[in-house]
Amino acid sequence: MGDxxxxxxxxxxxxxVALVLVWLAxxxxxxxxxMIDYALRPNLPPAAIGGPTDTYSLANIAYLAGEAxxxxxxxxxxxxxxxxxxxxxxxxxxxxxxMAQRATVGQLSVVLxxxxxxxxxxxxxxxxxxxxxxxxxxxxxxxxxxxGIIEAPIRWQGDGGVLAAMVYAYILFMLLPIYxxxxxxxxxxxxxxxxxxxxxxxxHTRVVIPHxxxxxxxxxxxxxxxxxxxxxxxxxxxxxxxxxxxxxxxNWFFEGGDWNRGAAYALVLLVLCLAVVLVTLKIxxxxxxxxxx
Length: 293
What we know:
The chain is mostly helical. It has a single domain (68-292), classed as MetI-like fold (Orthogonal Bundle), CATH 1.10.3720. 75% of the residues lie in helices and 0% in strands. It starts with a helix and ends with a helix. The mean pLDDT is 87.
């Protein structure tokens, strides 16, 4: 705060701080408070709102605890989101290391351009592109059949298709934090480890990954939260047996007309996701200040 006041002066700095506080209050605090309010109240007709039956309780949350199917989908969404984050890390880490430690300036510029350009298109269109690629009569099946790898088309829609689309959709949120962290690692440290006889695996596990743990944790946090709250990819690419918890929340709001129960489901998802993130950061020994950098 002191640096802000010294750089821009008290007048302009006060305006900046006020705008940030207004944005946080209007776009973050108020919607979440409304969601909590809806989640703890029953779904009533307009005439009964504010009446004796309009009381706060945990009935909507208890309904989720007693609904076996919804509870199973909820738990599946959590571990599947963790799988998305892990898969995205496995894809991004080698690329980030090469970009930070091996690529020339020209190569880095080309790779960043190739990675970023597809994200000029919104997420719905990118997911529809995956829908076309993975379609029963789509190009992926056509190529595999022409190569003789498969004899008949395969239905790729389902958990595999959702996983592929999410990894692609959130790759930047994992790649850039890891790249920024590894870029600050001195190449001399890697060379020293190599000169001392360390294998490539040991160099990465004992030198690179510990140095980049803040960037890795940031990527995991972003990717996990985005995957757990995703709706487009599961709705377009998921099979009947691969429903996502966000689809149930959508159904409560827009098909069932029960905003209170939908808010309760959304609140449970938010709280558990935050708990998973905080536990992950604790295990990785990374604090929120490191993630925010």
